[in-house]
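ENTRY TYPE: paired fold submission
RECORD: A
CONTENT: sequence, then structure tokens
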Amino acid sequence: MKQLIAKMRVLETHMIDVAADMGYYGRFDAEVQAHSVELMGASKVLRTWIETMSGREQKSSPFSGCTNTSCCCKKGDKDGCIN
């Protein structure tokens, strides 16, 4: 899942970049400007998917909440670590 989320983040960045370029060229073409706005909106939808999937992944990980990566973590512990 981490690889998928990473790819989605790259895609989101690319969508925003292309939308900005389209916005620039859209000064000369109303249709391109409209598509620029649509693409920016789609990138925001993708952002919500990324946030949802990232949050779900963190909650399902047995290591969520562990601040010390060199230890074993137990779900539900305040400090997250078993010594």
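RECORD: B
CONTENT: sequence, then structure tokens
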Amino acid sequence: MLDFLRETRSWMNNFSTMEVMGVPIDWFFHMAGAVIIVLVGSRFWPPKNVLILTIGLLVAKEIFDVFAKTRVEYIRAPGLDLAFDMAAGLAGAGIGWLLARRFPALRGRHDDGEIRQ
């Protein structure tokens, strides 16, 4: 079990250091993930709940990263990459919110465009 956890930690560390055209790939996944969470969540829940869910998942992922990417004996304070990861996630949440407002759910709509309950 420990070997599996070590390999997983090593893989995650390698993945988070990958870059595409000088931009860490982690930022893209934070942004895209937040957009998807907000778009899907806004179909079912009020905006406040979606915002709490999105920020909660971003914070939980960053806390997980602190422990998953370092050895327990040498846990260090998170650096600037944490701020950039969170900024990318929050930017994605904003984009998702704008898209959700621009393209609202079509629940209750009929062919004639009238909304019936």
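NOTES ON RECORD B: Residues 22 and 28 are 12 Å apart (CA to CA). The first strand starts at residue 19 and ends at 20.
STATUS: closed
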